[in-house]
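Entry 14. Structure prediction run on the chain below.
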Amino acid sequence: MNANRSFSSCLAPVLARYLGLKEALGRKYAIESRVLAHMDRFLAAQPPAASDLTAETFAEWCATLAHLTPGVRRNWMRIVRNLCLYRQRTEPRCFLPDPSLFPQAHTARRPYCFAEEEIARLLDAAKQLRPASNSPLRPQAYHLALVLLYTAGLRRGEVVRLVLADYDASEHTLHIRATKFHKSRLVPLSRDAACEMDAFLEVRRRLPHPPEAPLLCNQSRGLRPYTGAGLAQGLRALFSEAGIRTPSGRVPRIHDLRHTFALHALSRWYLAGVDVQTRLPALAAYMGHVSVVSTQHYLSVLEPVAQEVSDRFARHCGFLPPARPEGGAR
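Output returned:
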């Protein structure tokens, strides 16, 4: 556990054990730590008779969150509830918040799936970018970023954290180090993506290239990697330049490129007659998902897959007899 973190309420021992356990299991729990520290300070400021977490003190603490959006308040309350579930293991009579009283969850934004023609337009737009004084490889960097986000399903943060040593030119693999959920993985690149990487490295050698140097870099205040925010700003500008909009008229999110990778992979498997359920663990490992449940989410949002599932069901179960009319012979 972080040695600089301390708690002062009556729940301090429980908080320390809970966060220590989660961190030992490989979770960063940075947001959870801040939320629980906020609740701890609130409880520590209460009179001794009202210093425990009860229905009353929980409601009073929740009232201090009124300035937050409903979605954020719900998440904070959920974090405290998870702590209470942990506490119940040793204190069965402790207070447990009722989730039905939490603010309503917002509807998750539906992933946008880029068409192949849109990807081609984006790649062309990246090639038309002009080099900048502090980013002489700007066109090549954005072109490669698009390739990696789309063909390898990488997260934006994973792309900007890549260093030259992370690419194995002989195996055409990327080493994604200690990313989300502390998971590292090797990502084999497709043949086209490997060719793009090799071509980029040819021009990347114009800049200093020790193994620990960032793959995508600029020369602002020395050789520095692109930031996640900076890359996102540039990519959103490319989306606008290419005239790409979601059905609601919005510019797609950067993460939608990762969604597109997964949705296209599932679609190819279904169209090829592959048993997708048996392939989901491999896709989950490739994408660095903490659980195959995260990968299964895509099955519900890919309309061509849903139609293919319906057609397969009809092919296999079309022999079922129709239902008898009500009141008919049995």
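The chain has 13 helices and five strands.
Filed with the rest of this week's runs.
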